[in-house]
Amino acid sequence: MAEPLIDLRALLVEREDCDAGTVQKLREALAQGGGQYRNLKEVAQALKKKIETTSGAVAKRWHLKLGITSFFLGHLSDAIEHLKQGDAALASFYLGRALTDRGDFDEALKAFEKAEKAGYTASQVQLMRAGILRKKGDLSHARSALAKLEALASHSAEYHFQLASCELADGHRAKAITHFERAAELDPGHTGALFQLGFANDLAGNDEEAINYYERCLNYPPVHVGVLMNLGVLYEDYEKFDKAVECFRKVKQGNPNDEQARLFLKDAEHSLSQYYNPDDEFAQTKFGQVLEIPVTDFELSVRSRNCLKKMNIRTLGDLTRVTEQQLLSSKNFGETSLLEIKEMMTSKGLRLGQSLEQGGQYEMRSHRGSAPLSAEEQAVLNKPVSDLNLSVRARKCMNRLGINGLGELIQRSADELLEAKNFGMTSLNEVREKLAQYGLSLRGD
Fold it and tell me: Is domain 1-120 annotated with CATH 1.25.40.10?
């Protein structure tokens, strides 16, 4: 038998008090789903009316309740406005949290100090302070603060979350994951830990696990924009376009001026009406897999292997975008090496220059036209695509296309990238902007 829904109106409007227990009950209510988020919006409207008809100490209590309600609805500006007018330790603590989420760290520290002086649990305040120190880049003092709170390790999810965040900032991903997992174990509704675990699985390509963690975040508002954006992209990968649209629409509703959300929403809505032929995709995928085979998979001579490496040719697909003459123009690349390469291509049903017949063009770019690349320019081309810090959607497309380095990326045209599944104009513009930072561009741009 399903557990009855918690009555949010009775909890926040009809009851007089509001303390940490009230907040915990509020979180439990939101985790029930079933329209509780919508119910909380209605409670917010009722609380506003209460404020309009009261004054003094009574009004301060309503401001506290409306501030807490606004915080969990994700309305930070409203939360800050009302929590500043609430006269209680709880009001100051959540004011500190809201200011932290908005990035007003100095003001947040003042709010937490006021909360502690008013009697809020000191250890919880100190954990929040450690988080702010970390976000300001002061990892040393953040770790020192956490070291004094080791007694919380047995029961505090927030302690493990803050420690994990420090480990992550220091580049110790494995240690961080261990503590994020412990945080989620102690508090299944710790959205910070759930998001980080989802993101870690996302990076590792464990899509189903990532979706599971992101979806769990949805049960515990306020939901971070990153959760909705990343989950929306994953839904698109699994062709759940209706769910993707819902995610991007929520981001757009909360952030009307978010241009990226607008473009992602537009792409997802367009995908809902696209014609899809699985046979066409299968054929294209099989051909694409052949093109992505690394040349290192073949037993080539040392001379051929070295020449291909110098020309930044790493896959069979790269060889379809280069002519025999271009290969022969490379130093130490002769007829013997050419014959060897052609036999390798024939074994896979391919030929040199094949993509050129379809409008492709192989270019070794430098700002000096056809002049040899300098060591610095070659170093840029050898950089991994991960250095571009692309969004989840663009990064997944790079993985799907087997593009690992900048040298490989600039050999692709905009049209080639747009043919990739879920790679739209938003991702294309992002890639172009990132490449421009290195003085590079896509083929044909």
Answer: yes
> Both tokens of residue 82?
């009302």
Nearest CA to 236 out of 396, 127, 373, 83 is that of: 396
How do residues 290-341 score in pLDDT, each as one tens digit?
777 888 888 888 888 888 887 778 888 888 877 887 787 676 778 888 899 9
Omega before 222 within 30 of 0, i.e. cis? yes
The pLDDT tens digits of the residues spanning 221-240 come to 888 889 999 999 899 888 88
The CATH T-level fold of domain 363-445 is DNA polymerase; domain 1 (1.10.150)
User: What are the residue ranges spanned by the domains of the chain?
Assistant: 1-120, 276-362, 363-445
* Whole-angstrom distance, CA of residue 199 vs CA of residue 201: 5
Return d(Cα 374, Cα 59) in angstroms, integer: 70
Q: Measured between alpha carbons, how far apart are the two ends of the chain, in Å?
A: 61
Return the residue matching tokens 């080539």: 300
Contact 9, 43 (CB under 8 A): yes
Q: State how far the Cα of 431 lies from the Cα of 410, in Å rounded to an integer.
A: 10
pTM for this model (two decimals): 0.66
- Domain topology for 276-362: DNA polymerase; domain 1 (1.10.150)
Q: Is the pLDDT assigned to residue 376 strictly greater than 50? A: yes
Residue with tokens 């299944």: 188
